Amino acid sequence: MAYFKNIGKIKFEGRNSDNPLSFKYYNAQQIVAGKTMAEHFKFAVAYWHTFCGLGIDPFGFATQFYPWNQAKDFKTKAFHKADAAFEFLDKIGFDYLCFHDFDLIEEGPTQLESEKRLETISDYILDHLEESHKKVLWGTANCFSNPIYMNGAATNPDFSVVARVGAQLKMALDITIKLGGENYVFWGGREGYMSLLNTDVSKELDHLGILLTMAKDYARKQGFRGTFFIEPKPMEPMKHQYDFDASTTIGFIKKYGLEKDFKLNIEINHATLAQHSFDHELAIATSENMLGSIDANRGDDQNGWDTDQFPNNINELTRTMLIILQAGGFQGGGINFDAKLRRNSTDLEDLFHAHIGGADVFARALLIADSILQNGQYQKHREQRYASFDTKEGRKFRAKELVLEDLYAIATSNPPPKSISGKQEMLENLINRFI
Ligand code: XLS
Ligand code: NI
Ligand code: NI
Q1: Which of 59, 67, 326, 421 has its C-alpha lying 20 to 30 A from 105's C-alpha?
Q2: 37 with 94: CB under 8 angstroms?
Q3: 197-224 mean pLDDT
Q4: Number of H helices and number of E strands within the chain?
């Protein structure tokens, strides 16, 4: 059954096209900086927002009644949803999907029943994947919606809940591997605390480290070769989440010895919730060679929540693409549109407008960032700014060949440092010139 009947395959028509259902900048096969746009981005559709979204907010009920969600029994509904997902992927022309276990099919009353359901739907999706040549960028487990996780999932004070999480992770890893998932994500929505009065932070962090290690070991035993990502977020739903931001998460990964297998999945709206810019988070991740993947969306400038709107800020994404290009791309991942329509965007067609806009703004940012790098002034300025570390003594400092007394001798025998301009406005103008 076709759900998007009046919509054909979305084509690249260039910026002068008046057709809103066409790409203006995203041209999948166009080569930029040595790779096609499709290879640079690996765009993925988020199953949960795009196919499960209902338009609910804390003040109002569902507004989005998608036809594939109307069947009464859970199995038919899951099949319809999968049909809609693959029709959408085919028409939008992206190669990838991302999913949580229970986006695919409703969770059962017991874990064993859930496992059966996951088996049924993953068989069905596997057929779709083989037929369409689409792929899974990453899979994950929803260990935050079920009320059993209200006190935490891996960090729950009750061991029987922690064991339940283990069982759920095993099943989610099994279906991700079965569906050829290229990566696996951990987002710890309930891994944190509501109140420190009842929380033993040190125990909870250890339990999280132990469980992630078990999950990794299990997946490797099953032959999974992909990368594990942790997705930082500072809060919401918990008051405080342990994977607060990139720096905190890198520290956690290293503390528990997971750095060989784990990288980061950085989300724009989570960066801003942590009071960081997105390029800050990317810069921290790339400084440790841990930029695994990104969740693309945006927050609202006037409130602090995870509003998950589709990305559209060209200035922000130009700075983003500058960092990604200079890092040589992602470590295993791509760009997942973890974004949802506003609840009053109720036409099926709106799903296309949203993803077209997201792809176009990234494509445009890629083209601009590539011109900036080809022009070279931007990198040259940065190199010159650190040129003193290329002098004999600066080099020795970086090679750890100096002791504090050497710095004393250098500083006291030379004239005091001159003031050197940071040239921020000049660089901001340079970016704008290329936009
Ligand atoms: C929620 C997260 C979630 C993860 C996957 O804020 O972004 O959607 O990406 O569990
Ligand atoms: Ni996300
Ligand atoms: Ni989010």
Answers
A1: 59
A2: no
A3: 98
A4: 16, 14
Question: Cα(327)–Cα(323) distance, rounded to whole angstroms?
Answer: 6
DSSP 8-state assignment for residue 286: H
Tell me, in angstroms, the distance from the centre of ligand 1 to residue 100's CA: 9
Q: What is the rounded CA–CA span in Å between residue 312 and residue 123? A: 36
Q: Which two three-digit tokens encode residue 123?
A: 């068989």
CA distance 200 to 191: 12
pLDDT band, residue 221 (cuts 50/70/90): very high
**Ligand approaching nearest to the C-alpha of 185:** 1
CB burial string 278-308: b at 16+ within 10 A, e below: bbbbbbbbbeeebbbbbbbbbbeeeeeebbb
The DSSP output letter for 422 is -
Of all ligands present, the nearest one to the C-alpha of 308 is 3
Which residue matches tokens 């602090």? Answer: 304
Cβ atoms of 209 and 256 closer than 8 Å: yes
Task: Tell me which ligand sits closest to the C-alpha of residue 236.
Answer: 1
**Which residue lies with its CA nearest to atom 6 of ligand 1?**
306
Residues near 277 by Cβ (< 8 Å), separated by ≥ 6? 271, 316, 319
Residue 271: predicted pLDDT: 98
CA gap 176, 121 in Å, rounded: 12
SS3 state at 389? helix
Phi and psi of 289, rounded to 5°? 60, 40
**Measured between alpha carbons, how far is 268 from 323 in angstroms, rounded to an integer?**
14
* pLDDT digit string, tens, across residues 321-364: 999 999 999 999 999 999 999 999 999 999 999 999 999 999 99
Q: Which two structure tokens, joined as six digits, stand for 134?
A: 């689409």
**328 CB contacts (<8 Å, ≥6 apart)?**
none
Pocket residues: Cβ below 6 A from ligand 1: 100, 140, 185, 187, 231, 233, 267, 295, 306, 338
Q: What is the pLDDT of residues 55-104, one digit of tens each?
A: 999 999 999 999 999 999 999 999 999 999 999 999 999 999 999 999 99
Whole-number Cα distances in Å, 205 to 2, 36, 209, 212, 216: 47, 41, 6, 11, 17
Catalytic residue, chosen from 95, 101, 103, 174, is 103
Output the pTM of the full model. 0.97
User: Which candidate in 40, 49, 80, 100 is catalytic?
Assistant: 100
Nearest residue (by CA) to ligand 1, atom 2, is 187
Provide the pLDDT confidence category of residue 303 given band limits of 50, 70 and 90.
confident
Distance 408 CA to ligand 2 centre (A): 48
Indicate the range of 47-56, 180-189, 299-308 predicted with least confidence: 299-308
For residue 142, give the nearest of 214, 38, 18, 49 by alpha carbon: 49
